[in-house]
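Appendix B. One record, verbatim.
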Amino acid sequence: MNGLSDQAVAAPPTLDLAAWRAGFDEVFARIAGRFAQACSRKRARAYLLGLLSRSERKNGWTIAELAGDASPDGMQRLLNFYSWSADLVRDDLREFVSSQIGDAGGVLIPDETGFLKKGRMSAGVARQYSGTAGRIENCQVGVFLAYAVPGGGRVLIDRELYLPAAWTDDRDRCRQAGIPEDRGFAAKPELARQMIERTIESGMPFGWVAADEVYGQNTSLREWLEEHQVSYVLAVPKSFPAATAAGKVRADRLAARVPAAGWQQISCGPGSKGPRFYDWALIATTCPVHHLLVRRPITGGELAFFTCHAPPGTTLAELVRVAGARWAVEECFQAAKNETGLDHYQVRRYDAWYRHATLSMLALAFLTVSAAQRGHQQLWKTFGDKPAA
């Protein structure tokens, strides 16, 4: 089991292969001790290299072939049977990211993504809405926590598999899929809270939380963030009630009162076609740390609304930056699925899902840090600079 041998690597001119391998070895050394058995340690290294390869598909079969195996059995044992903790590897991943690109201005971004599946045996699979497909499909849904820092670095640092109530209410079905007895139902905002709490406890530097309406309109999550003095910019629907001296008023009605001079044109960050400029308005509420942020397309169109919890004196430009950072999680999903095989797995068990997802996230983090060290702001512009299997 040789993984990606030097003879099998076709390095582009822009890539220092020796530096790439040294960086990979350094990252793997961080997690090697989590695999007590030599065979599991070798499999884990080969699996990571397979996820980092240029292979179009990164499932058990293709990764096994890259490692020189005759069958995917060894890789399946790594995900299903070997003794190792995906949570400890996740902690190592977070520490690696923190030490390399950690920033006090970092933004934590919870969001979910779907994994289309056939059948009903995979843990958590159900007919449910998939943002990936844009409709209800038979799928698993994972809730992830992204970390975005000023300058373009963004990674996935935590994950939870969403289990619909139809699963958690059926303990026999849960046992067959390897779901722990103490794992009950948790809504997506609750899973996000758990991941944010772990990040806080780890000491990882960050300054903000940003998220879409699924999380922004969840009162319990907002209150928890405020209790823990976490600043946020969270998307909310137009019906969101903002506190004013005249009582609570819908967000869209407040936006209609903003005078022409109350709008400022600001970029919320770079996009595929350059800076993303919008008109923005900031509306004060009766609480000095709560504001309503409104985004309006320059050419006209539907408004977007954000409830903000921020220290007094926070500038409009900073709130706009955080609001724009939310899209980093979508870029992470695209990158992880296209480049590190996040959705290429062929496992059914609960713990195997966590193991594959964690190793895929670690591979993505390695690419992000490598790109940052080479002066690239966005790693997905440098995906061609990977060794080829």
